[in-house]
Amino acid sequence: MQPLKRACQSVKTEFQTTRHKLLKLFWIFLIASLIGAGAEILYVGLTTGRWMSRSGLLYGQFSAIWGLGAVVMTVLLHRLNGKNDRYIFFTGALVGGAYEFLCSWVGEKLFGVIFWDYSHFAFNLAGRVNLLFCLFWGMAAVAWVKVLYPRLSRLVDRFINWKHKTFVTVVTVLMVADIVISLAALWRYGERQAGDAPDNAVERFLDEHYDDEFMEHRYQNMRLPEDSGS
Asked: Measured between alpha carbons, how far is residue 140 from residues 52, 62, 128, 187, 206 in Å?
């Protein structure tokens, strides 16, 4: 019985450890999404004079691209803390550039829309990524690995304990719901642009509550592929 008991305890401990890691990554995603959206609003507003929503979700100002980027940087790069800054910089530039290209490609193929177009930048690749922003990813990687992640990690570890369990659970459920409904609405927007009529109650609900006018106002930087060069 002892070996079985030890095996069950091991599975239980691993589950708790995995759950903690996933919850921690989710909250890093949440915080980075919030900061990223705010930074984009300021950057675009100050450089172009256009103040617009930069959120990737329907509700709240959360940039899912930045949030997922922080998760990718955490999973792939946080163990590089002891490495030379130049090594982290070039690794971050490569990983960030590949990640941004993939996000752009998936957005176009899955939802039929383009969220950004860098065709007017020098040294761009298919308008999905450019050298300047890859350098920004490199700088962000150094700042994340050396400064931001260690502090944020300790903060999140202290926060997601039993004392805050109810609050953490409520916010997590709301964010997951926001992500799901946002993805569904974006998918349905792409379907409408292709001329597809709603097939069921869910699609009719999405068409009624998240029509083209609503979506284009919410995602002001979004373009259809044929409009990307205009």
From this structure: 23, 18, 19, 30, 37
State the CB neighbour count (10 A cutoff) for residue 230: 7
Under a CB-based contact definition with an 8 Å cutoff, are residues 28 and 70 in contact? Answer: yes
- Residue 1: helix, strand or coil by DSSP? coil
Q: How much is the pLDDT for 10?
A: 40
Tokens of 46: 């100050």
Ranges assigned E (strand) in the chain: 124-125, 129-130
Q: How many CB atoms lie within 10 A of CB 107?
A: 20
3-state secondary structure of 102: helix
pLDDT averaged per 10 residues in sequence order, the chain, 230 residues: 45 52 86 87 82 85 88 86 89 93 88 85 90 92 90 82 74 90 93 91 95 90 66
Question: At CA 108, angle to CA 105 and CA 112, rounded to 5?
Answer: 165
